[in-house]
Automatic annotation (TrEMBL):
Keyword Amino-acid biosynthesis set for record: yes
Protein's UniProt name: 3-dehydroquinate dehydratase
InterPro entries from the UniProt entry: 3-dehydroquinate_DH_AS, Aldolase_TIM, DHquinase_I, Type-I_3-dehydroquinase
CDD domains: DHQase_I (cd00502)
Catalytic activity: 3-dehydroquinate = 3-dehydroshikimate + H2O
Function statement: Involved in the third step of the chorismate pathway, which leads to the biosynthesis of aromatic amino acids. Catalyzes the cis-dehydration of 3-dehydroquinate (DHQ) and introduces the first double bond of the aromatic ring to yield 3-dehydroshikimate.
Assigned EC number: 4.2.1.10
Organism expressing this protein natively: Paenibacillus odorifer
Coiled-coil portions: none
Lineage summary: Bacteria, Bacillati, Bacillota, Bacilli, Bacillales
Family (UniProt): Belongs to the type-I 3-dehydroquinase family.
């Protein structure tokens, strides 16, 4: 497998980490406004965090919102994410609905990547990867710990598992309790990138202490970073303009 993933001409896994901005509107009106506004920020990718959408449990409303969002930003690669409450998201739905939602997104022809959480039954994760790939949609397999940072061996083992399950972009976000935890995340990223990964990976340490990990992906091996438009979708996200400045500064220094 190639070490880069290309979506709509955006090469993930090469050069400056790519900037992704989440859409977190609760209503269709808010989502449309956000989609319009983020064009000015010129991100590399956009993520629709559907768990923030008030009608996420209505599949038809989701599909219709998806086509409205896509019509506003047709050229930007779109990640479709339902972040479950157990992983720091806004809502919890049944596994049956989670699968239906992601399959509908993959089949829609309107998204480039779906996000599938690792901590589900293995057969469900594999099934979603298969469904996505059948429609030429890539898959982020993700894991989040909003309370702590597991040991580096555990972080690496989860990232390897995501790769083994066919995720095109393994992703892990963890919460540091001190600066040492940020180092743990960075070291796990570096080891994964240099010893195990045969594809781009995404890692971040959240909150204030973890911000450095959102900026230094090019050095340690994280290919994509999330930047906030007006409001962050997770603790520690910095504004896109600041992110871009620092990413460029570090890139020039290398
Ligand atoms: O998984 C992630 C990463 C994230 O949690 C962050 O910490 O930037 C933000 C989420 O929107 C995204 O789905």
């Amino acid at each position: 497998m190639s070490r880069t993933l290309i979506v709509k001409n955006v090469v993930i896994g090469e050069g400056i980490p790519k900037i992704c901005v989440p859409l977190i509107g609760a209503t269709l009106t808010e989502l449309k406004q956000e989609a319009e506004a983020l064009k000015e920020l010129n991100p590399d990718l956009v993520e629709w965090r559907t768990d923030f959408f008030e009608k996420v449990e209505d599949l038809e409303a989701v599909k219709s919102a998806l086509s409205d969002i896509h019509a506003i930003i047709p050229d930007l690669p779109l990640i479709f994410t339902f972040r479950s409450a157990k992983e720091g998201g806004e809502k919890q739905v049944s596994i049956e609905y989670y699968i239906a939602l992601n399959v509908a997104a993959a089949e829609s022809g309107l998204v480039d990547i779906i996000d599938v959480e690792l901590f589900n039954e293995e057969q469900d994760v594999r099934g979603l990867v298969e469904a996505a790939h059948a429609h030429n949609v890539a898959v982020i397999i993700s894991n989040h710990d909003f309370h702590k940072t597991p040991p580096k061996e555990e972080l690496i083992s989860r990232l390897c598992k995501m790769q083994e399950l066919g995720g095109d972009l393994p992703k892990i976000a963890v919460m540091p309790q001190d600066a040492g935890d940020v180092l743990t995340l960075l070291e796990a990223t570096h080891i994964m990138k240099t010893k195990h990964a045969d594809r781009p990976i995404i890692t971040m340490s959240m909150a204030g202490a973890g911000v450095v990990s959102r900026l230094s992906g090019e050095i340690f091996g994280s290919a994509l970073t999330f930047g906030a438009a007006h409001k962050p979708s997770a603790p520690g996200q910095v504004a896109v303009a600041d992110l871009r400045n620092v990413l460029s500064l570090l890139h020039r220094s290398l």
